[in-house]
Design brief:
The complex is a heterodimer of chains A (428) and B (275). By secondary structure, chain A is α/β, with parallel strands linked by helices. Helices cover 27% and strands 22% of the residues of chain A. Chain A has 2 domains: 81-271, 3-Layer(aba) Sandwich (Rossmann fold); 297-423, 3-Layer(aba) Sandwich (Rossmann fold), CATH 3.40.50.1220. Chain A has a 9-stranded mixed sheet, with helices on both faces. Chain B has a domain at 11-194: Rossmann fold, CATH 3.40.50.620. Chain B is 25% helix and 25% strand. Chain B has 7 helices and 13 strands. Chain B has helices at residues 30-43, 59-64, 90-101, 121-129, 184-189, 229-237, 253-266, and strands spanning 11-14, 17-19, 26-28, 48-53, 78-83, 105-109, 132-143, 147-153, 159-165, 168-172, 191-194, 210-213, 246-248. In chain B, strands 9-8-7-10-6-1-4-5-11 form a 9-stranded mixed sheet, sandwiched between helices. A two-stranded antiparallel ribbon of chain B has the order 2-3. In chain B, α3 crosses α4. Chain B starts with 10 loop residues before the first strand and ends in a 9-residue tail after the last helix. Classes of the chains: A alpha/beta (428), B alpha/beta (275). Chains A and B meet through α6, β10, β11, β12 and β16 of A and α4, β7, β8, β9 and β12 of B. The structure holds flavin-adenine dinucleotide. Flavin-adenine dinucleotide (FAD) binds next to α9, α10 and α12 of chain A. Residues 302-304, 325-328, 339-344, 356-358, 360, 362-363, 366, 377-379, 382, 395-397 of chain A line the site of flavin-adenine dinucleotide (FAD).
Chain lengths: 428, 275
């Protein structure tokens, strides 16, 4: 197929810059008029070799240069149009959840929904955050930004002071709508608290009855999922609690996310006398008891593992839940409940470490939702290495043993292998 | 209505009718049944059930059937029924009843399976009564004289310990311990006590809503928005997520372990306390 044919006549002309037909051979015309007036196009002379090594002809008029096949595909994306709203007619408040201090996909959908409400009415979408600066509010679609991190204590769960801060925003700005993510115990909880509090005030009345589990807004009416396989279509109330994928996230515009300050601290001290809910902190959960589909951190083993006792020990030292490929399960090294993949569990871990797993499609399907993937494998060409954010080409057993040693708990310290085995079976 | 003795009714569970997620058969609501289970482990047979609605509801007997396996084997369940129609608002009825009952701890499911199913009712009740509310409890660890300690469900299988002041309303998550089965004998023996003297008000807010059968939510498509065909084509032809990874070869196991630990620390998955 790809044999390169050499035309010695053409080669000679290309070497000779003074040849009368030099230009024609160096930059061959791709379109010319033939002897009897028909336009001819040479498809081999146009287009460029794309990133995957195939020649593509682009008729959009853009300048196409040939690229080396290794160059990465679209990294910057198309540039966005800047939108500035200077004096808004009103405000749409969005309270993103920002788990781990970043906007989640649900938050972006929420801001997209807010834009749907705001656009055309010159309302300003205002993000209200409790964790200080959050990256990416501009691209997610926020025109204004209110930082309430001064009113709450860091990361802990204090719904009452958060509610008081939101109430002071409500009195200061009287927004058209409030948007929350309908998830417990984050936005769903806070939004319902706000709805309950505002329903007591006479000025809102029925309008404060929040629309929960909103999944679509069309023609000014919201669709919210009710119980008993029913949807409720209703006018948009003051407070909306929306499900994930309620709207498309903003992708074409940029917004300014101009900070506004609200004097919220004063109201907080006045009416918060007795604190009803006190956060006593996170509880250490046994990672093996967490359902695999929810586990945040998974250490997964495949056929490449030889030392299973060492693997279980490493999972314990790292505090990771154990996963396995189908081969490891079929060989009897791991229980069926631990299998990750198409015929096992679809996991959603924020970090997934695959040791000695080749990355068959059936396995990769199961880890599609994982945020960060680390591969430890001997074969640099396998599919798991291609999928991974960090790939370490080394022997799996040895790396796990070295990790345990580095973390100060080498395998040899643990007295009896049987006790670990028993504990493991308990957990599964 | 005479308020029951406070000591006789320390814990109340709000129950509603539900339906099976697949067959749609009427029965216990999953979260409400977990709330009843939690109440039975806390208070045994002294748990009082409340339902605002129709006395003929078949699911009510299913909840009463859970009063078995308790210390007091002759115990039977009791359910206070506040009569109202589906168009009425349950919040004022329940608030009046709870204020008179003298109870200090109310358990409920996070969201009803029938009707509006908004999960707003516990919040509206707590607001009216001026009680504390906490959502998504997994277990109640301790009930003290004026504080309750409980574990709250967080995403990704995590738990958080909270201390809540009494009187309070606690909603129970679907990840709480599964409920015991409902047995026929206790369900027959249980008493449904219709509370009269309360007048239901019509729910004014829901008047203009249009109810329709739930539509399947559309699947989100991956649309590449771009002005020109070239960008759209390149986005479609690009291999998904294959690029961007860092591949490190020729490592000794110790070097690899160091890289792995450094990466996990950087991503805040391992905390820095370990050496
Ligand atoms: C219908 C169907 C459904 C399936 N469903 C699933 C599923 O749900 N989940 C699933 O996982 N599989 C599933 N499979 C099986 C899947 O196709 C693969 O066979 C399987 O995932 C391969 O497992 P593995 O990666 O552990 O083994 P292998 O493919 O054998 O890979 C072993 C890897 O370990 C590496 N290795 C070897 N020794 C070492 C060492 N000392 N140190 C480091 N690395 C080493 C090798 O380089 C290799 O990459 C399914 C198959 C079918 C047909």
């Amino acid at each position: 197929m790809n044999v390169r044919r050499i035309d010695p006549h053409a080669e000679r002309i290309r070497r000779n810059r003074l040849h009368p037909r030099y230009q024609e051979f160096m930059h061959p015309a791709w379109r010319w008029t033939g002897p009897n007036g028909v336009t001819r196009i040479d498809p081999h002379a146009i287009g460029a070799v794309g990133p995957n090594g195939i020649r593509r002809i682009d008729r959009s008029g853009a300048v196409v240069e040939a690229q080396p096949p290794t160059s990465s595909p679209i990294e910057s994306g198309p540039s966005r149009r800047m939108v500035v709203i200077d004096d808004p007619a009103g405000f749409v408040m969005v309270v993103p959840e920002c788990p781990e201090g970043r906007l989640s996909d649900h938050d972006r959908d929420l801001l997209g929904l807010a834009r749907q409400l705001a656009d055309g009415q010159s309302l300003a979408v205002t993000a209200v955050t409790f964790q200080g600066a959050v990256a990416g509010l501009e691209d997610a679609g926020a025109d204004r930004w209110i930082d309430l991190s001064a009113c709450v204590e860091g990361d802990c769960y204090d719904p009452e002071s958060r509610l008081a801060a939101l109430l002071s925003v409500e009195t200061a700005m009287t927004p058209r709508h409030w948007l929350f993510a309908d998830s417990f115990p984050g936005g769903g909880d806070l939004g319902r608290r706000l709805a309950a509090r505002l329903s007591r005030s006479s000025s809102h009345g029925a309008n404060a009855r929040a629309a929960t589990r909103v999944w679509q807004i069309a023609e000014g009416l919201g669709l919210s999922r009710a119980g008993g396989r029913q949807d409720i279509q209703r006018e948009l109330p003051l407070i909306l609690l929306a499900l994930p994928e309620c709207a498309e996230p903003v992708s074409e515009t940029r917004h300014e996310a101009r900070p506004i300050s609200i004097d919220a601290a004063g109201s907080m001290t006045s009416d918060m006398t007795a604190v009803g809910v006190v956060d006593l902190g996170r509880v250490a959960v046994d990672p093996q008891q967490i359902p695999l589909a929810q586990a945040p951190f998974i250490l997964s083993a495949g056929r490449g593992i030889g030392d299973w006792a060492g693997f279980h020990h490493a999972a314990e030292v790292l505090g990771a839940s154990e996963g396995a490929s189908r081969v490891a399960v079929d060989d009897g090294n791991m229980p069926r409940t631990r299998q990750v993949g198409a015929t096992g569990t679809f996991v959603s871990a924020s970090c997934y470490i695959a040791v000695g797993i080749s990355g068959a499609v059936q396995h990769l399907q199961g880890i599609a939702k994982c945020q960060r993937v680390v591969a430890i494998n001997r074969d640099p060409g396998c599919d798991m290495v291609k999928r991974a954010d960090l790939a370490l080409i080394a022997d799996g057993d040895a790396v796990l043993a070295a990790v345990c040693a580095r973390l100060g708990k080498p395998m040899a310290d643990v007295p009896a292998t049987e006790s670990r085995g028993e504990r493991y079976h308990d957990a599964a | 209505m005479t308020p029951p003795d406070a000591a006789a009714c320390p814990v109340v569970a709000l129950v509603s009718s539900g339906h099976h997620p697949v067959s749609g058969r009427p029965g216990r609501a999953r979260e409400d049944a977990r709330a009843v289970e939690m109440g039975l482990t806390l208070a045994g047979a002294r748990l009082q059930l409340v339902h605002a609605g129709n006395a003929e509801e078949p699911a009510l007997r299913d909840y009463l059937g859970m009063y078995h396996g308790l210390d007091d084997s002759a115990a039977q369940g009791e359910l206070a029924l506040l009569p109202m129609t589906t168009a009425d608002d349950a919040v004022p009825l329940l608030a009046t009843w709870l204020a008179n009952s003298g109870c200090r701890l109310v358990l409920a499911g996070q969201r009803a399976e029938c009707g509006e199913g908004s999960g707003l009712l516990p919040y509206l009740l707590a607001e009216r009564l001026g009680w504390t509310i906490v959502s998504g409890a997994a277990t109640i660890e301790r009930v003290g004289a004026d504080r309750v300690t409980l574990l709250q469900v967080l995403p990704q299988g995590q738990r958080r310990r909270l201390e809540v002041s009494l009187p309070c309303l606690i909603t129970v998550d679907a990840l709480a311990p599964p409920p015991r089965q409902s047995a026929f004998g206790p369900a027959r023996r249980g008493r449904i006590h219709v509370v009269d003297g309360l007048t239901a008000e019509e729910d004014s807010a829901s008047g203009e809503w249009r109810w329709q059968p739930a539509r399947a939510r559309p699947k989100r498509l991956k649309v590449v928005k771009s002005g020109n065909a070239r960008d759209r084509f390149r986005a479609a032809a690009a291999k998904s997520s294959a690029a961007g990874g860092q591949v490190l070869t020729d490592l000794t196991p110790e070097q690899a372990a160091d890289r792995l630990i450094a990466y996990l620390r950087e991503e805040k998955i391992l905390n820095d306390e370990m050496p």
